């Protein structure tokens, strides 16, 4: 069975059809997805801006990161769950959409980018917390900003093709 055939089967299940056709539930999940993404991404942007010294320069990076992640991580959990629900409701339509595929690829790259920061720069954060942010950590922030713009653009463009 091909991936497209599997997605077609998922999209045709009674659950997916009912979810898509629901007058209230589908828009509620979609709205929750967008609001949770806005919250989480907005907070991540604050951290990226701090790493790039574009804001919050008087605050230690560790403080900004701690305060941001306390809210961003649960927000990303909500985004993940609602995103899976939205995908299941339109699995074949989404999977065959080129914007969806680019969005998923860039989300994977964002995960790798975040892991790079966590494993390479975060362990030495105390050494540069209030000082000069390493160029590599700044590069991670630039990549984060660029990739999130791509994710948002692809998410919006997907809606016009589903």
Describe the structure.
- With 162 residues, this protein is mostly helical.
- It has one domain.
- It is built from eight helices and no strands.
- The chain has helices at 3-12, 14-21, 25-51, 61-89, 91-95, 98-121, 125-128, 135-159.
- Helix 3 runs antiparallel to helix 8 and helix 6 (98-121) runs antiparallel to helix 8 (135-159).
- The radius of gyration is 18 Å and the shape is elongated.
List the helices and strands and how they pair.
Blueprint: H1 3-12, H2 14-21, H3 25-51, H4 61-89, H5 91-95, H6 98-121, H7 125-128, H8 135-159
Helix pairs in contact: 3-4, 3-8, 6-8
Q: Which features does this protein show?
A:
single chain; 162 residues; mainly alpha
Report low-confidence residues grouped into runs of 5 or more.
none
Distance between the termini: 23 Å
Structural class: mainly alpha
In helices, the fraction of residues equals over 70%
Report mean pLDDT, rounded to a whole number.
92
Question: Helix segment count?
Answer: 8
What is the count of distinct domains? 1
Identify the quaternary structure here. single chain
As a percent range, the share of strand residues is: under 5%
How do you describe this structure in short?
With 162 residues, the chain is mainly alpha-helical. It has eight helices and no strands.
């Amino acid at each position: 069975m091909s991936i497209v055939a599997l997605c077609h089967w998922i999209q045709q299940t009674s659950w997916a059809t009912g979810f898509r056709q629901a007058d209230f539930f589908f828009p509620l999940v979609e709205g929750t997805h967008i609001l949770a993404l806005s919250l989480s991404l907005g907070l991540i942007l604050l951290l990226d801006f701090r790493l790039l010294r574009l804001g919050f320069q008087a605050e230690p990076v560790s403080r900004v990161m701690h305060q941001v992640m306390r809210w961003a991580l649960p927000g990303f959990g909500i985004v993940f769950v609602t995103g899976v629900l939205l995908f299941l409701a339109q699995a074949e339509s989404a999977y065959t959409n080129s914007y969806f595929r680019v969005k998923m690829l860039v989300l994977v790259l964002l995960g790798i980018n975040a892991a790079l920061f966590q494993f390479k720069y975060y362990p030495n954060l105390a050494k540069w917390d209030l000082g000069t942010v390493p160029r590599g950590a700044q590069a991670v922030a630039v990549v984060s900003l660029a990739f999130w713009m791509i994710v948002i653009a692809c998410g919006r463009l997907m809606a016009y093709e589903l």
